[in-house]
Amino acid sequence: LLREAAPAVDFAGSLRQLIASLLPHGKPRIGTVAEVANLSIRTLQRRLTTENRSYSGLLEEARLQAALRLLRQKETKLVDVAFELGYSDAANFTRAFRRWSGVPPRTARRQNAG
To answer: What is the mean pLDDT of residues 50-65?
Structure first.
């Protein structure tokens, strides 16, 4: 948890933290992130390209990190985790989580419980 809260040391890490802070308000669009970062969309994309990164990849990383943090909270329902991460329903979140981690969120929650 401390590592997640520590300031990022690179451009992509800073953007990932910015994206994570915007997740509770829905899926952050690249234009919104660029505006908050005081960059044009094209400049943001160029800077990510120099680090061999993509906006969609950063969004998925931010969502995965947030999902893992929220799944540690046993009282949080999966549907609430899905909405917190900008998904319209739990099924879409479950499919994305399985793609990221190879296991469904319920399995990940059980594995991290012990």
So the answer is: 93
